[in-house]
Amino acid sequence: MGSAKKTSSAERKARIAEMRRAEAARERRARALTITLSAVIVAALGIGGYFLVSQADDDDESAKAGDAAAVAKFTRTKDGEKVWDAKKLGRTHVEGKVTYPVTPPVGGNHNQVWMNCNGDVYKNEIPNEHAVHSLEHGSVWVTYNDAAKPADLKKLEAKVKKTPYSLMSPVKKQKEPLLLTAWGHQRAVTGADDPKVNTFFSTFVQGKQTPEPGAACTNGKGQ
């Protein structure tokens, strides 16, 4: 009788031990499966994120390339003003530098922050990407290089300072000494007393070419 009890107890212990081994094996398999699934999910998210970023970069570069092609084409009026199709100029907000085929640029993709253009006169060069946004708001941008005469600059500064939706800054790489630029329009002038200066201002300060009439020219970027 005692022998039978001992045998039964040993068998029970053996079954319990086997059940524990089986449970431990199931737990190991479950942990392994969880780790594998986690690794797969992380890898998928990483790949998906890469493609999303890559696609965004590609879209941004495509926008810049298409914009450059549109800006490169212009017509010229009989009295020398260069005119671009304003509707074909890109208006996408982009980060970083934009390569414009025209110096100074006449429109195109630009930074989301405009340059202050409430009669602001800048003594140093300003970022094209911000100035283009000011053009989008209907401003006239007066630019000059080292060949411009000081007397002309003084008169033009005075005109800009009393004209909301205008700004002025040096652009050393431009070919002409004095240039007037609006969205899709650009003109070289012989000096501050050139009658085309007043005509350009009266036509293009918040003119019909403005993509966003009435948009702010303050609370943007200053120098």
TrEMBL record:
It comes from the Bacteria. The keyword Transmembrane applies. Keywords: Membrane, Transmembrane, Transmembrane helix. Pfam families: DUF3105. InterPro entries: DUF3105. The chain crosses the membrane at residues 30-53. This is DUF3105 domain-containing protein. It comes from Streptomyces spectabilis.
